Structures are given as structure tokens and as C-alpha cells.
Backbone:
């Protein structure tokens, strides 16, 4: 909830005061206790009217804090503070107070600060700066509110307006592009630009597809045309209903443009924050190939076999690659029992990088042929890691404990202490030994 997020960040208000006759005596000087347990002070009384109920959406000015320490001021927000009234989280809280107010009321409420942080803000305990028995004060001015029914009605009206706007935008697009083809019964506009050959796909076939997608207003979202085509199993949901339907009309070599209105796209929901509700989507589609599931399984099996053979070959030549590297670079140090080669290039004079300590380092990674693959120096940012916590490859954890602040070293790491049989992109295939130049900048003291 928006307000609870702000409350977690927290900050206050100055206190102002008035009184309400129907309240009882309060333990807070100058306040009165209402029947629902709210300790309240009135500064300005608005006009007597209906009060916010449960689920009403309130809009208000609010400041809160501890004594003279302001923790939150809604006047600092870019938009008016607005949130729904929920069930009270403890006796006399903010939500209980809101149900007492008329529009225009300006009040201060008070309650124990630990209740605020632990019950309302959901923290496991009060922050250290909150003293025992501290009081939280909240200044509130209720500006307006809408009942749950009014809010729902507004939301429905907004959705209806968005649906109308979608139709207007779609019709304008069709006129602008001189599109006269009629939509299919589902609402899909299928515009074939190049006829393909061969049979239509059948359920279970794997379609090799290039496609791009954008919103009708012209915002591009995704495309495979600048990369490899994508495999899609026909008959299984893949994207929007309109896109999935269109695949049934394609043959090998077909190219088509699709106009997919929101009922067969993302409807009234949209997608995350990128695609608003009631948005028509546009696709460009090319069916590159159709393969049976059996063909694809055989391809995968062949690819796996090829990768297995390559991995076995890499495993066999790894020792030779390391020996060649040692000879070519005149390295004579012996490996550790695990196989790590640790070459100190500059001795440090500071603290040791003990297990459990956080360290900050600069590093450069090379493959065993000497190609630079990655460097924190290029990024201009130190790399932080806790030694011995398994946050990095084993070779790092073993090598770091040998270093001191200010020191530099080269680690030659066999694949058994790196990524083993797992590939890490094209530059690090299975059974790849790695070379790291490490500079230990700081051992962090906590």
C-alpha cells in the first residue's frame, strides 16, 4: 500500500490543537480519547458530513514524527497523498482516526511510537532512535474522500473511456494505412504479405519464427529479426491469443502483419508498466521453418552429443593448456593441493583477507589463451565479496585468504575450482581454466 511504504520511510509534524466535546479523558495532555480509542486534538472543524468508511479512498495532508523530529511530510511528495482506509492495525491508529473526520477537519492524533513502527509499518522492532514510551504524533487534514462504490464507478468509467479510445486509435490506424481487410471472427487482422509453401502447421510442430511486436502508437517492444529466430511449439500458448491464432495461418516462408486488438492481447490488464490496458498490438511475423517434434528432439540430441564430445576434449586438453601457459609465461610456482596456482605480483602490507571478512578488490579475467574477458577496472567500480562464503568460484575463496591489503596476485584456476563442466557463454566453454589478476584494495572492518 502506498501510504504504508511512505510510513516505513517515515518523518512529522508540528502539533496544533482544538477539542471535541464527545471525547473522554486522554493520557496525552491536551488530547481527548474517542470511543474507538483514538487520542485526538482538533485544530479546525470542517462541515459536518458523511465520514470515510472502510475501503474509502482518502486524500489528505499529513505530517508525522516524534516530538520535534519530523519523519514524514506529504507536502514533499510529487502528488497528493491518497490511499484506502483499511481495518485498524492497533487501537487508536491512523485508520481509526480517519473514520472520525469530516472533510476540512484538521487534527493531531497521538499513540505509542512502537505501535506505529511494529503494527502499522510492519517492522520487527522499533528503530534504535525510538525511546521507550515515545509518542508518535500525526497531523492530518482531510481534503476529500470517495466511497468504495464511487471509486469503483470512477474506475469503470475510466476503463470504458479507454476502450472507446482504443477503437478510435485503431480506426484511425486502419484509415491511415489504407487497410481494408476485414477482421477475423476473433477480431484479429491478418495481413499476409508473402505467401509461403507447404502444409500448415499441426499441433506439436516446432515453428522457427522471426517476429517483432510494438504498440499501435508505434512503441517497439521486442524483435528477433536482428538475432536468431525463435522456436515455438504450435498448439501451446506462447504470446497473446491473437499472435497464437495467427500462427495457424502461416506456411513455411510466409510473412504477415498482424493487428491484435486488446480482447485478444492484454485486455483490461495490460502488461507490467510497459503496456497500458486496452492497447492494440502490432506484429510482423515470418515463419522460417516447420519441424516435427521428432526432428527437433533429434537435433537437440545431436547438439547435446556434440557438446559432450567437445567437453570431453576440453577436459583432456585442460592440463596441457595450463602447462603451456605456465611455460610461455615463465611461471615456476607449484600448485596447491587443489590445483590453484597463486602468483604474488606485489606484496601487501595491510590486513589479511580472512574467511568471513568482506573485501573490496579490482580484478581482470582472462581465458587461458590470454584474451581479456572482463575487468572491474573497465567498469570503474570495485567488486565486493565475503571471503569463504561461496559467493564466488572456489579458486577465488582459496586465493583471497593468501592476500593482504594493497597486495596484487595472479590466480591460475583450473576448471575444477571454477565452472567445471558448465559453460559460461561462448568465451568460457566447459572445462575452461581461468586466469585472474587481483588487487586487494580493502578489508572492510565492521
Residues:
Amino acid at each position: 500500500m502506498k501510504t504504508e511504504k511512505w510510513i516505513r520511510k517515515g518523518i512529522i509534524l508540528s502539533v496544533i490543537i482544538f477539542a471535541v466535546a464527545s471525547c473522554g479523558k486522554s493520557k496525552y495532555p491536551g488530547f481527548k480519547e474517542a470511543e474507538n480509542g483514538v487520542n485526538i486534538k482538533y485544530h479546525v472543524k470542517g462541515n459536518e458530513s458523511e465520514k470515510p468508511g472502510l475501503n474509502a479512498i482518502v486524500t489528505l495532508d499529513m505530517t508525522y514524527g516524534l516530538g520535534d523530529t519530523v519523519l514524514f511530510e506529504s507536502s514533499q511528495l510529487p502528488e497528493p497523498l491518497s490511499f484506502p482506509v483499511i481495518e485498524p492495525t492497533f487501537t487508536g491508529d491512523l485508520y481509526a482516526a480517519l473514520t472520525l473526520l469530516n472533510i476540512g477537519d484538521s487534527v493531531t492524533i497521538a499513540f505509542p511510537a512502537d505501535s506505529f513502527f511494529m503494527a502499522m509499518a510492519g517492522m520487527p522492532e522499533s528503530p534504535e532512535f525510538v525511546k521507550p514510551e515515545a509518542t508518535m504524533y500525526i497531523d492530518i487534514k482531510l481534503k476529500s474522500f470517495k466511497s468504495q462504490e464511487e471509486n469503483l464507478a470512477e474506475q469503470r468509467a475510466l476503463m470504458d473511456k479507454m476502450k472507446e479510445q482504443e477503437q478510435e486509435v485503431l480506426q484511425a490506424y486502419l484509415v491511415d494505412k489504407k487497410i481494408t481487410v476485414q477482421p477475423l471472427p476473433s477480431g484479429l487482422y491478418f495481413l499476409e504479405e508473402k505467401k509461403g509453401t507447404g502444409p500448415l502447421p499441426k499441433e506439436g510442430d516446432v515453428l522457427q519464427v522471426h517476429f517483432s511486436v510494438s504498440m499501435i502508437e508505434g512503441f517497439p517492444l521486442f524483435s528477433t529479426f536482428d538475432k536468431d529466430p525463435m522456436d515455438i511449439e504450435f498448439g501451446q500458448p506462447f504470446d497473446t491469443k491473437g499472435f497464437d491464432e495467427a500462427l495457424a495461418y502461416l506456411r513455411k516462408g510466409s510473412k504477415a502483419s498482424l493487428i491484435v486488438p486488446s480482447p485478444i492481447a492484454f485486455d483490461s490488464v495490460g502488461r507490467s508498466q510497459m503496456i497500458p490496458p486496452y492497447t492494440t498490438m502490432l506484429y510482423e511475423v515470418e515463419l522460417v521453418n516447420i519441424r516435427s517434434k521428432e526432428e527437433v528432439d533429434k537435433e537437440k540430441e545431436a547438439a547435446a552429443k556434440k557438446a559432450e564430445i567437445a567437453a570431453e576434449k576440453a577436459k583432456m586438453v585442460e592440463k596441457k593448456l595450463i602447462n603451456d601457459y605456465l611455460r610461455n609465461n615463465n611461471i615456476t610456482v607449484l600448485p596447491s593441493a587443489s590445483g590453484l596456482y597463486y602468483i604474488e605480483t606485489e606484496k601487501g602490507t595491510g590486513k589479511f583477507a580472512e574467511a568471513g571478512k568482506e573485501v573490496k578488490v579490482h580484478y581482470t579475467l582472462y581465458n587461458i589463451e590470454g584474451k581479456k574477458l572482463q575487468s572491474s577496472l573497465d567498469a570503474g567500480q570495485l567488486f565486493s565479496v565475503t571471503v569463504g562464503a561461496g559467493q564466488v568460484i572456489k579458486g577465488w575463496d582459496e586465493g583471497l585468504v593468501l592476500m593482504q591489503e594493497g597486495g596484487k596476485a595472479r590466480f591460475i584456476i583450473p576448471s575444477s575450482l571454477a565452472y567445471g563442466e558448465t559453460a559460461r557463454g561462448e568465451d568460457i566453454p566447459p572445462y575452461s581454466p581461468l586466469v585472474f589478476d587481483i588487487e586487494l584494495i580493502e578489508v572492510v572492518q565492521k
Q: What stands out?
A: The mean pLDDT is 88.
